[in-house]
User: Fold these one by one.
Assistant:
Number 1:
Amino acid sequence: MEREALKAQLKKQIVEFLNLMQVKPEEIKDDEPLFGEGLGLDSIDSIELIVLLNREYGIDIKDPKEGRKVLVDVNTMVDYIEAHRTK
Amino acid sequence: MFYIHDIACISPQKTFSEIDIEHLNCPVGGKLPAIEPAYEGIPLNILRRMGKAVRMGVGAALTIAKQNAQGIIIGTANGGMEDCIRFLNQVIDYNEGVLTPTNFVQSTANAIASQIGLLTSNRGYNCTHVHRGLAFENAVLDTAMLLSENPSHRYLLGGIDEISAYNYNIEFLDGWFKKEKVAGKSLYQANTKGTIAGEGSVMLLAGKHANGASAQLMAIRMLHADDEQYIAGELKGFMAEHVSDAGDIDLFLSGENGDARLQKYYDACEAVLYKNVPVAHFKHASGEYATVTAFALWLACQAFQKQSLPQHFLKYRRAKKDFRKILIYNNYHGMQHSFMLIAKV
């Protein structure tokens, strides 16, 4: 899958998994921070995102430090997916 | 027992903020879904995780909980059943692998009371009763006992249940919901088994002092039985204990739900009352669910306030009297029965 298509798919999955009722996938910027400022996600969302990566891309993040580097924005998530996906 | 100081209701009818119970919303596919408000008091980040039962419970509570309450007491038979099933399905679908926490957190029955506690910073008594068709009644009893011990306190008391696809399908297969389409008062004329599914949330502020109250819950009794003559006998005893004269009841709010198998209980209880006592039914408006007596209680408060009820609620158009005392009788699945006596303040 091309990188842009993967980004679009991931944004759609983030909105669905986290039930972001007032956010449209296309409104999420590639470099918009997921936590704090930006999308304003919290710690429970980070667990939901790790489950998303596991279910949709076969990626298993066990080290919290690694998770912090991956779950920064859509760009970092897509980088990680492209490098580690098993499905 | 206690006084009702404020009450809010989310139901399949227009019972929240702008109240209009004159015009009926009818069931769709055998279900009467609740009309949900915009929930402006709930932060979006919290709201997006809530299941319907939690949303309805918190949404109704926030209008009441602004007033100081010393504790939160909730009755719900199933809590967030829809989230519970979603979580359990994940266990199967993902082969007991990685699971998301949200559905689990939201699915527990006490999620409603705990979310209200968190959102209102209420660190007092927090308890959820889950006695199926008597869940709300047990919450009422708990509230009454707490107020006996702490007469200066006030408690937030609520009854909530949601329609979940899982529960509906199981209970449909078990014959508790009608196969044929019914709408409005035709529910009571079908003479078949089953009823229509409903859901809703009622929250009230209970206190021991009459000052500023709109109604008083005078007495409650719960029974487990399947013999209608025994139930009628218990009602006679209840009336003898709490009402000076059987004709002193201004309205009998009957929980009949159009299930031909259960009508004998309602008929037996009606026969205990004088023939001139007006009788009203309400499940064509609320649908059937385990904590529906909370809706009946809200309706009784409406009758006290307006001193009238829309015609579609009335079973018999008997001579109109002032609504000062209302008796509610309900049974759930023919086994769990309750009487509640409410008086206007």
Number 2:
Amino acid sequence: MNMNELLNFSEDELLAIGLSFRVAFWCAVFILPPSVLLSWWLARKHFRGKSIVEGFVNLPLVLPPVATGFILLLLLGTNGLIGKYLNNWFGIKLAFSFYAAVLASMVVSFPLAIRAIRLSIEMVDPGYEEAAKTLGANSLQTFIRVTLPLALPGIISGFVLAFARSLGEFGATIIFAGNISGETQTIPLALFNEIQVPGHETAAFRLLLVAVVFSFAAMSFSEILVKKLHHRK
Amino acid sequence: MHALSAKLKIQKGNFSLDVEVDFLKGITGVFGPSGSGKTTLMHLISGLENPDEGHIEIGNELVLDTENNTLVKPRKRRIGYVFQEGRLFPHMTVRKNLLFGSVYADKAQQIIHFDEVVDLLEIRELLEKRPKSLSGGERQRVAIGRALLSAPKLLLMDEPFSSLDVALRRQIIPYLIRINKKLGIPMLVVSHDLPDLLSLTQKLFLLRNGRVEGHGNYFDLIQSEKSLDIMRGAGLMNVIPFKVESHDVENGLTQLINREASHEIHVERELINDCCKVGDELNVSLRPEDIAITLNEISDISIRNQLKGNITKIIKKENRTYCLVDVGFLLIVSITQASQQKMNLDAGTEVYCLFKSMALQINI
């Protein structure tokens, strides 16, 4: 195995890398609005049954991803609880598609994004929000002009974490989205394939390297943001 | 006109607040020891907290009435709340902080323009800075400016003297006086520091354990034992109004004069021509412990300030005796019980109050 072989990506591998980034990007983008809203709600509001909501949000963190994927399949599969109506009424077939890969990533990344964003919102002194209100701002204006900018490092960190988690997503994806080259076969799934085939160790090693480098970069970036958040205090 | 009238009741754990307030225009000092409910009162007025029962009228507008479910949100109450720590938005420059509330304010209700605020509070060179790089006093001035630009009908100041350096804490006072003179906006100034509060206003509102213990002029209040009791621990103070008579730049001296006393009080102090013009009025503090009482005028003594007056009341508290002496205005003098007995002082006794000019603290 030499250096050239390590960088000599096959077309399928490049496809998997490209797809991984597309899935991760859209996962992080789509996850941001709901996780910012839910984080704010959990950070600032006190209500009955809050711990149930928290438990539910955190479930994908401890549930085997394969189980998460299975739940998604049961709910959103073509014959699933909700999926069958999506199919019958709107002709939408979610399972085993690019969007299924994005959705599977979103579900498993959600608790991580919530954690980072919620922490950053909790660290925003509510006194600033009170000040904004006495100055005439309503709740939405206060949120946009005060809370959001002050929590920004945490929100970016949440975005990066969701992105990174999505790059590593395997279990839920393979169950709910399948392992279709060019459509749902992300780096981990391609890696899994290569490991299965004798003599493909070099290819597996190439993908492993890509996975390590990008996951490391994303996590370091996220750590830097968290440090910046603490520093601001 | 009433600036604010309210009747408020709230129970918070072991603490309960039950007050009736009626503030007129001008500056009112809200004084009380820590835990007396000052901040809760401010929160209730501003709407950051809501009472169990009560009503609030700001100006002539009803903003809260628990009986008929009237509740105006904090942002609609038009109250300029200057928080103890300023609470400037750390992610914005001073300029953006100042302008934060003005976008929500009705232009017709603005009481002051941006440039006027900047000049009045002397914060022009801070405009592009971030709050982080400001000193405590600067931060507070910006917070006041920000509140003024939100078109308030009432200004609430929470402990404006407490977060500052002791040497600098009183620097905020001339700004507050300036704002009051120029804008005429009613101000409630909350503090647990009586001497600081007195250098700003003599209209006081006393709070203890969530109850009103007195409301009115300082000199009327000290004649009531209950009020005196609350104020005593915080440092009683005489506040005497002086006029700037002249500046002697050459010798570095400023002459102050008070004509309300039994005889004119002339005081020469280090030059203060950078902040006060001739004819300006300023409050001067004098500690009750720094005044001596004699029965006769003393000629062979260096102390020239010897004010003649009559004792109007004697109040004994533990081992101290407080004499209220009318010397044209009321002075409170603290002496020992032994002195009082030896000199046979009583209400009606004619006395002279002696104090050194250096004992006067000029509040600028």
Number 3:
Amino acid sequence: MSKHELDARRLMCPLPVIRTQDKVATLGPGDILEVVCTDHGALNDIPAWCRINGHKVLSTTDDKREVRITIEVGHD
Amino acid sequence: MIIQRKAVSLISGGLDSMLATRAVMEQGIHVEGINFYTGFCVEGHTHAIRQRDRDKPKRNNALWVAEQLGIKLHIVDVIDEYKDVLLNPKHGYGANMNPCRDCKTFMIHKAVEWIEKNNFDFIITGEVVGQRPMSQRKELMPVIARESGAGDLLVRPLSGKNLPPTKPEREGWVDRDRLFDFSGRSRKPQMALAEQYGFTDYAQPAGGCCFLTDEQYSRKLVDMWQHRNSRDYELDDIMLLKVGRHLRPRPHFKLIVGREEGENNFMEGYRKQFISLHQVSHNGPLVLVDGTPTDEDITLAAQIAARFGQGKNEPEVEVGITYPNGDSRTVRVEPIAPGKVEDAWYV
């Protein structure tokens, strides 16, 4: 298990999802990815993408300026 | 041994692709979704930028549809590849800068590449015969299938009975009798099928999902190309066409005037690429200057900027000017009189 961070600041829907998807494709099951975004829509979109693709959202935080979404990569 | 057949479905986020996907899933086919991002998507960006839209429930409709269907969705960035489709459409444009026929062919071609790479068997779209003037005319649909490289691996379940049998039908992977014969612009058959499938919430019929179908956006795009003497573009260029008022007081420069706080915040990110104007003595919008303005032009730009701020009726407004290299200065200007902002300046 390894931890990674993805800077998706200034990107807007659906680019944060695309960058997350592409990064996750390079990781293995159990790896942790923290995605940092400035588009608050990512709070809906990235968890939705995780649900349909079998990954687990461990936490989300929103300090109004940025959102952070932490994902555990699933199997498959 | 029964082979589990697999299809990829082009998911736009609208009702038709949702229904088409479900119709094939009902036949026991494993379906995954694919969605192509060209950079001209309407919904996500404008909602993300504009403050007034922040309180609206926001969702990416393609992701939402995939979740309703219980399928995976692959979102593919085609921004760079799409440039050739937009700049050199073999079949021209629609009413605005929308190259719908070439766009459809391109996306299906990308889906062909995807199924070859991922060992899927065929492709599904939600196209309906006769629904769209450019890309869904009955005589064109087989042509698009051929030109995209999909050939008879392209199944259009909503109009399948109106089209020649495809390989998945001939091989018995898909039962043609369980496809549909929808045609024309009426939405009633789709709405009835949605009810049958229990879909009560779905995005409104498509057509407004691409900025290239928008007259005002297309005008800004053409204006940008004409005044740069180049039809190339980067993602930042097409993003900035989505925000602000665009005014071109002189051929060699234009102003992008933020309309509200969300747009101003978004435009802040471009201050290292453009000369920017902000009002020091009063509240007012952030203004970006695109082009090659002279010092005299910058003064005019400051006067125009002042017209859109709270000091518009004051005799003088102080405006800060920041250059991409970080240099800055301030000027005191009289806001331009309303009658001197020519209608023709608005792009």
